[in-house]
Amino acid sequence: MNIRGNSRRGLTGSTVGFFFGFAAVALYGPTAVKFKEAMDLTPALVGLLIAIPALSGSLLRIPFGASVDTNGGKKSFLILMLLSVIGLGGVTLLLFTSYPDGMKGMYGLVLTFGFLSGCGIATFSVGIGQTSYWFPRNKQGMALGIFGGLGNLAPGIFSLVLPVFLTYYGFISAYFAWFLFLLVGTILYGIVGVNAYYFQYRKAGVPEAKAIEKAREKGQEIFPAGSIKDSLLLSAKVKNTWALVALYFTTFGGFIALTAWFPTYWAEFQGFNSVKAGLYTAVFSILASVLRVPGGSVADRFGGEKVALLAITAILISTAALSISHSVPGSVFAVLLLAAGMGFANAAIFKLVPVYVPNAVGGAAGWIGGLGAFGGFALPPVMGTIAGAFGAVGYARGFLVFVILALINVLILAFLLRARNSRLVEKIR
């Protein structure tokens, strides 16, 4: 029986897949004006086009995250990445053949391709489940921090590279380059990605009890409880799943939302040009992503709840400062604190998934990753509405949304900490 891979390869594969899966999300915002001009779109239609990859990338996390409990993750990864390749390839072909004069009446098709392009973002919840099955509980934070941190670098790097690429090579060439990038990434994941031992034994026809026994001998600690439906239902019945959803809505949904929002904030409120706005946005995105790596290890050592509580307090303070700051240095300092808070919070929250929902990690990852990432779709329009109501200063006042969410999150974490401490006291007694 050919059982392949180890935890290091499993983590490498899932991280590579997630990084490449994020390829399309950076394109639509900076290039939306081109579609607006070619198809004569209203601001509302432009907003929907920008947000549509985040919509599919969040909602599809729920069923695909749960599917890891039945197939181990590799099949789900490849399906999502291939759908994203089709979407990005489709819009690239459409631009080559029809832009700009033949784009009238093509909005529905562009929207469909945008929806498909966002499927790669949903690889996050698949990777969370796949990585969790590879590692013992005492190394979950470290492994998931590396997965989320390095995989999450994609939006920041693209925010930095894309304005320069558009300046030198043009609009359509950017879509073609990103399509090739995603295609190469899909092939690379297909070669490197590998399921945890239990799923390999089951695929080889080994009975479930024997597969668990053999996988345990190789060091695997976490095992699935049943079907996709079982995993979703079981995790949905755990009330703390929904507490983690609320936390992740603010931290990861907020991360996606702010990666889209900051270029507008720096340009409209601080008066930066597009390249400078992209650079400052990249600093936020890359720092938040990189800090997920040590954030996972810190959560392993001090506990996910405590680290998340401190991190969300940092989010509260920094967004309150951004909502009133007019100076560039003050805003930059607040953004750096915000990036640190989001990086550590995201790592700490997913450290808690195998702790609170050990029998349905995939289902929980689906709910938390999917509904949490929905913040990336829901929050920018709210911030935009605030900006529209207050004029130029509204681009700063929009951060008040995060102040309110952070306050709610602090209360949730205080409840989780109290409940966990109560359980520990009961155990001692």
From TrEMBL:
It holds the Pfam family MFS_1. The keyword RNA-binding does not apply. Residues 10-421 form the Major facilitator superfamily (MFS) profile domain. Gene3D superfamilies: MFS general substrate transporter like domains. It comes from the Bacteria. It is found in: Membrane. Its main location: membrane. It is a multi-pass membrane protein. GO terms for cellular component: membrane. The chain crosses the membrane at residues 12-29, 41-64, 76-99, 105-129, 141-169, 175-198, 242-262, 277-295, 307-326, 332-353, 360-379, 399-419. One of its GO terms (biological process) is nitrate assimilation. GO terms for molecular function: nitrate transmembrane transporter activity. Belongs to the major facilitator superfamily. Nitrate/nitrite porter (TC 2.A.1.8) family. PANTHER family: HIGH-AFFINITY NITRATE TRANSPORTER 2.3. This is MFS transporter.
